[in-house]
Every structure is written in structure tokens, then in C-alpha cells.
Design brief:
single chain, about 375 residues, mainly beta, Jelly Rolls, 2 domains, eight-stranded antiparallel sheet, 1 helix, elongated
């Protein structure tokens, strides 16, 4: 495999652009959401309310996106002097989706103790701007941002998985002021900027929210419970990406069965390697956390051609972009000392023949594979 090519993400002109809001068929308002003084009021400052707004047409998100919006949270009252927050959500459940009350944020499953049982939004990932500390959920504060996820309907639970979070923010979300949020996705890194400062960044696997074309519905949700506040979105732009990312990710389409992912990882990391033969072609799913983790029988040591490789892996989740994550062609630089193949690109899909078999691996650091995340999926043919 050749070295990865470092390219800049080129965003399309914003497909969604609202400088203010008025009733329009482009937006679908759900639950308690309404248009109020040229803003979308996701919930009024009343107890036990929930609302959502979705752009009617799905948007391209798999190869990257950028969205910017201004919000204002006013009239906090009730339990905790305000609750519970709002979220920017990507989902593949439908344009009328809505989750639960209170700590569910309008996207997640409810805590039955307080609100009974309300379904969450399956196939969703939320950037949650949380304004109330639910200690029973392990919230770090009443003023933080988190990436939260719901997958298959049968796997949904309370509380929603928290993929990453920041415990404190440089501003108060519910101080009544207008704040500007910008969210970017450069596969696989999702980042949040608040009033110009980056407050959270982590690798996130968007595969659960994508359709076969890499599209998803985008919009906002919010909720109140015993505490309440107005959750207002004042303006909104959204644009998808024209190229894959700043790393050579061949494709974002995932065919691996996501139910086989290891727990507690942001990127789907299969619990085992998969090798399936069909004639002279082998279909391989290679987990990123296994050193030389898959192989095929090749007693004569013949040439093996790798085809249709796709996927994302992170061998250093604390690094950013191509410094720690890549597609099958690897990052922009050679691995260097300590990598399985020092001369190949870091993170590349590499091949080696030994003991009558051809082996496949992510080009990571020897002996330090257990924390790697993600997988590559590809076809291999013995020539």
C-alpha cells in the first residue's frame, strides 16, 4: 500500500443556511419546538417539555462536515435553577424523531425513575450541551459538553453512552447570553468550538448514523424536567465535505456487523478478526487492536493483492488527525522506529508472508496494539 496523502478538507457551500427562522417546509418541528421571534425555541421554560427540529433532507456527513449556530438559554428556573440542555444530533431514525424528557436531552432514553419510559432516538450521535448535573448518570458538572450515542434499538439503554466529555467550559451555557458553537468532523475526529475556543475533540465512529450513501438527518433536540429553561437556536449553517479528510480514508461505508464491536471504544473495534473465502477471494475484517491480527493460507508464498480496502483506525487516540488516525493507506509520515514496518506509513494496512500464510496488520507500534481502535475491511486475492 502506498503512503497516505495529506489533503485539506474542502467544504461545500453550506447546504443549510438560516440567519433567522420563520415557518418553512425545509424544517420539521417536533414535540414542543416552535418558531419564536425568529428563533427556534426547542423547549419553553416549563417543566417536562421536549422538542426537536430536523432539516427535511438528509445531509452528507460521512466524509466530514462543519456546522455553526448561535444559541441562547434564558429564564432558568425550577430544580437546579435550570435544566436540562440541548443537543446537535445526527441520526438515521427519521425526520420526526424525538427522545425523552429531562436528562434525556430530547434524544436519549428516559430515566424511568422520574419520567416513566420514553424511547430515545436510535441510530444517533448527539453533541449534548448539558446544563444540569444528574449525579445518578455520572455527570461531571452542570455546565459541560459531551458526545453521546444510541445504536440499534434493541441496544438502547439509560443513560446513553458518553463517548467523550469536557467537565468544565470557559463560559456558562445558561447565562442568558448569545453563544456561538461550531462543530467540525474530519474523519474520525469530532470537535466542538464554543465562542472561538476548542472545548472538546475525540475520535467518533459515525457509521451507526449513516445510510448507504453516507447521509444522515441533522438537527437539534432539547428537554426540560423538574428544572426548565428556554432553549433557543438563533441561526444555523451546515455544509458537508467535498473530500474524505486530512487523511487517506478510502471509504466510509461500513459493512461489518456493528453488533460485534468491543465496548468502551469510540470507534467500532471488532471483537475478532473475520476471514471469509469465496473462490480465490478472501474478505477480511481486521481489528486495529490485534498485531498481525488476520491471515490467509498461502503455502507457496504467492503475491497477494489487497482490494477495496476501507475503514478508519486510531493507533494514538490522544493525537489528532493523521498524527494518530488514518485510513488503509496510512498517515502522511512513515512509522519509523518501533513500528511493525518502519518504512511504511503509520497506520497503513501492511502485509507479510511467513510460515505458509500471508498476514495482515495495521502498522502500529510493536506490542502496544491493545488500545488501538477501529478496523480495516478489505478483499485479498492470491495471484
Amino acid at each position: 500500500m502506498g503512503a497516505g496523502i495529506f489533503v485539506f478538507v474542502s467544504l461545500l457551500l453550506a447546504a443549510i443556511r438560516f440567519q433567522g427562522f420563520a415557518p418553512t417546509p425545509e424544517l420539521i418541528l417536533v414535540g414542543d419546538a416552535s418558531i419564536c421571534e425568529k428563533a427556534i425555541r426547542l423547549t419553553p421554560a416549563k417543566g417536562d417539555r421536549k422538542g426537536a427540529v430536523w432539516y427535511r433532507e438528509k445531509q452528507p456527513v460521512a466524509s466530514g462536515f462543519e456546522t455553526t449556530f448561535q444559541f441562547q438559554i434564558t429564564k432558568p428556573g425550577g430544580l437546579g435553577h435550570g435544566a436540562d440542555g440541548f443537543a446537535f444530533v445526527l441520526q438515521n431514525a427519521g425526520p420526526e424523531a424525538l427522545g425523552g424528557l429531562g436528562s434525556a436531552g430530547g434524544f436519549a432514553v428516559d430515566d424511568r425513575t422520574y419520567h416513566g419510559e420514553h424511547a430515545g432516538i436510535p441510530w444517533s450521535i448527539a453533541v449534548f450541551f448539558d446544563t444540569y448535573r444528574n449525579k445518578e448518570e455520572g455527570d461531571p458538572s452542570n455546565n459541560y459538553v459531551a458526545f453521546r450515542s444510541h445504536g440499534r434499538p434493541a441496544d438502547m439503554h439509560w443513560p446513553a453512552d458518553r463517548l467523550a466529555f469536557t467537565s468544565h467550559l470557559p463560559v456558562r451555557l445558561r447565562d442568558g447570553n448569545v453563544h456561538t458553537a461550531r462543530i467540525t468532523f474530519r474523519p474520525p475526529m469530532l470537535a466542538v468550538f464554543l465562542d472561538g475556543s476548542k472545548v472538546l475533540e475525540a475520535p467518533v465512529d459515525l457509521s451507526i448514523v449513516l445510510d448507504s450513501e453516507g447521509y444522515a438527518w441533522v438537527g437539534f433536540t432539547a428537554s426540560t424536567g423538574g428544572g426548565h429553561e428556554n432553549h433557543d437556536i438563533l441561526n444555523w449553517t451546515f455544509g458537508g465535505a467535498e473530500v474524505s479528510s486530512s487523511m487517506s480514508v478510502v471509504s466510509s461505508q461500513i459493512s461489518f456487523a456493528m453488533s460485534g464491536c468491543l465496548p468502551d471504544r469510540n470507534l467500532c473495534t471488532p471483537d475478532r478478526a473475520v476471514v471469509e473465502r469465496s473462490g480465490s477471494i478472501y474478505h477480511v475484517v481486521l481489528p486495529a487492536n490485534r498485531e498481525w491480527g488476520a491471515s490467509i493460507v498461502n503455502p507457496d508464498g504467492r503475491t497477494v493483492e489487497v482490494m477495496n480496502a476501507h475503514g478508519i483506525v486510531c493507533w494514538d487516540v490522544k493525537a489528532r488527525g493523521s498524527d494518530g488516525c488514518s485510513g488503509p493507506s496510512g498517515g502522511a509520515a512513515a512509522g519509523g522506529a518501533g513500528f511493525l514496518d518502519p518504512g511504511a506509513a503509520a497506520g497503513a494496512l501492511i502485509v507479510a508472508a511467513r510460515n505458509g500464510r500471508t498476514w495482515f496488520s495495521v502498522n502500529g507500534l510493536r506490542g502496544l496494539f491493545q488500545d488501538n481502535e477501529g478496523f480495516y475491511e478489505f478483499d485479498a486475492e492470491i495471484k
